[in-house]
Structure formats: C-alpha cells, structure tokens
Amino acid sequence: MLLHRISLHPGNREHSVSTHPSGMQLGTCSAKILELVQPFSHSGTRTEIGVTVFLRLVFLCLVLVSFATLSICLGEINITPEKALHVLLQHGTDSSLDTIVNQLRLPRLLIAALVGASLSVSGYVMQTISRNALAEPFLTGVSSGAALSVALALTLKIDFAFVPMFAFVGGLLVSVVVAKLAQTSDGLSVSRLLLGGVGIGAITGGAMTLLLTMNPVFSQTQGIIFWLAGGVAGRGWSEFWAAGITTIIGIIAALVLSKPLRLLSLGPSSAQSLGLNVPVMQWLLLCTAVLLCAGAVSVSGLVGFVGLIGPHITRTMMAENERLQLIAAALIGASLVLASDLAARLLVSGQELPLGTLLSLLGGPFFLWLLYQNKDVRN
C-alpha cells in the first residue's frame, strides 16, 4: 500500500491533531486557519447551507472574473472594459487592439487560470490522499521532476504537443520515489516527505543545470532559464490547448473520484472497511494529481505554493463536500495565479517580473507560518 495515515512524530508515538469536518487531519495549523472563517453550523437547515455554499461559489466566480477583466484591460496600453468587450465580440479585425486583446492578453489570462486551477486541485488531492496538510507539488518535488522532463524535451526539440506527456512521466516517477522515501512503519511521515522533496529538488536542479551547461545553443538555453523561473509570458493559443486538455481531464477525473477521495480522507483502514479498493484508488488519485501538475508545469515552468495556499483557503470557506471543495480550489487557484501574473506585469514599469518568483515570495512565508503553527510537525 503506497500511502497510509500520517505519523507526525518519529517512532511509534502519535499525538492528537485537529480534524476537519471532511475527516482529514489538518493539525494545529489548519485548526487556526479554520478559526478565521466560521464553519457551517450543523444545526442549520440543508437549505441554509446550500444557499451559503452557492453564495460563496458566486463570490469566488466574481473574484475570478474581476481579475480576468483587469488582466485584459491593464498593461502597457490600458483598454477600457467596454472597448475590450467590443474587441472580443468583433474578433478577427486587423486592428492593433485585436492583436493585443485576442492574441496576447486573452490566451495569457486563460493559461494563467488553467495553471492556477491545476496546481490548486493537484495540491488538494495530494493533501487528502496523504492526509498531510503540507503536501504540495512544489514542496514534494513533483514539480521539479516534471520540470526536468520538460527541459529535456525542449532540449531535444520534441514537439510541444508531447511535452505534457514528458512532464507527466517525470512527475509520476518523482512522486513514487518520494512516497517510498516517506514511508515508515507508522505511515507516511511528514518530515520524511518534505525532506525527500528537498532532496529530489536538489537532484533535479543539478541535472537541469548540467543540461543547460551542456547545451550549445545559447538562445535555447536562455529560453529554458526564463521558463524555469516560472511565468506565462509569451504563451499563445497552442500552449493553451495543450494545457487545457490535461487540466480538463485532470479536474474531471478528480470530480469523478471525489467519493473515493472523501473515503480516503477518513484513513486507509476506515476506507477499506467501507469497501474501497484503497491501493487502486490511491494510485488513480495520485496519477490525477501528477497529471494536473504536469500540464501546468509544461506551460508555466516552476510555479510554486499555489497547491499549498489554494486548498487551505478552500477548506476555510466550503462545506464538507469534496466536489464543492475541488471546484472552489480550482477557482481560488485560478484567481491567485491571475492576480500574481497581473502584479508581475504591472509592479515594475517597462519590465516583467517572473511569476514563479512572486509566488515564492508569497508562498514561502505562508509555508513557514504553517510550519511554525503546527507544533506537531516542528517536534
């Protein structure tokens, strides 16, 4: 069995942790986060809960639409929302505004939204099946493995349509290695998981550096370096369709497997007692998470911490329904990356900052705060 319950301490000692209504052990850090937003009252009627959930989903949709509108309208050349809407509806004209809106900004914002949704849902699935609130594609080395495979594919000049497949294979191999390294007699160790991710990240980072050093084509090397910094600048419709296919397949698979996902959040023993084929479902969900991560990495490079921040915000807002939480995680992740990409374009006049760098500056302190709050993991 690949993934089991977590032991937060080495050895055989186990300490009590806070449990989210969905059944996932989140630890002290998530218990503190849950205090920020009042959870749904179990005494409330089903209608009241349904209305609250609906309103929160509408709010998340409005936030996403707002950031998308800003991404279309703001830049080196500002465009009013009315003018941007007119250009979108009159697609195909030869005006310069049509090029800016339909060929540059629209595919870029759609790719940014897909990347955010993919990484956030991937992080949610990883955290649930491992019952580890700190699991995330970037921290566990899955993104690094996928990135190395993509860099290799770009160096070999593989057609871009096959790049996500390379990323999937690399990410899956790394996830298996990290899971094996983190496995203990008491389950999946948090500290071993994170340390394994650090080790894998160091190995893949060295391999990518060696790959770039041995590459004789300077322009190709510069392109790979810029891609590794993370970002969606210069991405067009071809990259959108490649990322869109993997994102749609991955999110649909996660939604279809939401019931097994909920059962696994109760723990492998409980899930098996309820009739679930635990090893098979764990592998299917792991492949789903890796597929989503691979699709995102193939077009955006190394963009970290979205899979950590998105799921944590999701659990503070949504009820104990895995499908609703998956949808909310996708919306939150998309909004987060869209907002970060907008900031990367506008913070410094005449210069664009790497998206991955901005998200690291945001996600790094967030991760350290979670680690500080969770005394069990620190011990």
Q: Could you state the order of secondary-structure elements as H and E?
A: EHHHHHHEEHHHHHHHHHH
Major β-sheet profile: 3 strands, mixed
Q: How many β-strand stretches?
A: 3
Sheet with the most strands: spatial strand order? 1-3-2
List unreliable stretches of 5+ residues. Answer: 1-44
Helicity level:
over 70%
Through-space gap between termini: 27 Å
Structural class: mainly alpha
What share of the residues does DSSP label as strand, in percent?
under 5%
Mean pLDDT: 79
Radius of gyration: 21 Å
Count, helices = 16
- Which term fits the overall shape? globular
Features:
mainly alpha, three-stranded mixed beta sheet, 70% helix, globular
Protein architecture, described:
The chain is mostly helical. 70% of the residues lie in helices and 2% in strands. It has helices at 27-34, 46-73, 81-89, 96-130, 142-155, 163-182, 190-213, 218-228, 237-256, 258-265, 268-273, 278-300, 306-317, 322-346, 355-373, 375-378; strands at 6-7, 183-184, 187-189. Helix 5 (142-155) runs parallel beside helix 7 (190-213). The radius of gyration is 21 Å and the shape is globular.
